[in-house]
Purine nucleoside phosphorylase
Amino acid sequence: MQDEQSYLPWEEFEFDGIYGLLYYTQVVPGHDGRLVFGYVKDKSCVFMQGRFHLYEGYSLCQVTFPVRVFKLMGVETIIVTNASGGLCQDFKVGDIMVIKDHINLPGFAGQHPLCGPNDERFGIRFPCMSDAYNKVLRKLALDISMELGYSNFVREGVYCMVSGPNFETIAEARMLHVLGSDSVGMSTVPEVTVAKHCGLHVLGLSLITNKVSLDYSREEKVNHEEVLQISKMRAEMLQKVLTTFIAHSHQVEDINSN
Ligand SMILES: O=P(O)(O)O[C@@H]1C[C@H](O)[C@@H](CO)O1
Ligand code: HPA
């Protein structure tokens, strides 16, 4: 259906207890490019089915624009999900990593969403990032995973963002590992940075879709199809963790005790 007032196509939907509207945008294959408004249990939510990436040619201002729109809509907590390659040797394909912290590698090179004049309506010039991923929300996610019987494949770790679009060389992967990264991906950090800047509480979940080779003798080659295939395989489980998390989020009494 086409909204006459806008150039965004949309349609109404009802799926598995979630009701709302779908809006479509253009994004990378495997990302649906839809903005979904609806309810999980009695909680009103907005979902991005897909995101904008730096490697698609979007500026970091465009990549993070939805986060500021969510803030203006009254959103208080943002849950970011992504696919990433496992650098930590203990991680297995299909593991879910609760993101404890991140390394903003593009930010080191000046590709940072908060570069330029600071918009004081959203946050301060020099925001603290040492507590970007809320401790209380991380604990709730880990507790829920345990209750659901998923504790064998739910971990905590540090996510490192690279710009992409190529996957890492072995030398790059070794460097990221030595720097303290447990997984590597091409997204998320700009959105989290802007979310933290404007005072949103953040939970991050990263699905380990492939093992990143740190060894020249390994023959496996990562590709985007593998990433999509593992994402599909774990979609139901991730959905269960997320819906249970949202349903239990009222239990979080002191979300600010980070
Ligand atoms: O949006 P994410 O980061 O989950 O998308 C995944 C990771 C890379 O951007 C791309 C590579 O397969 O898909
Ligand atoms: O191995 C990877 N590297 C970078 N981004 C990724 N996204 C999924 N897997 C990977």
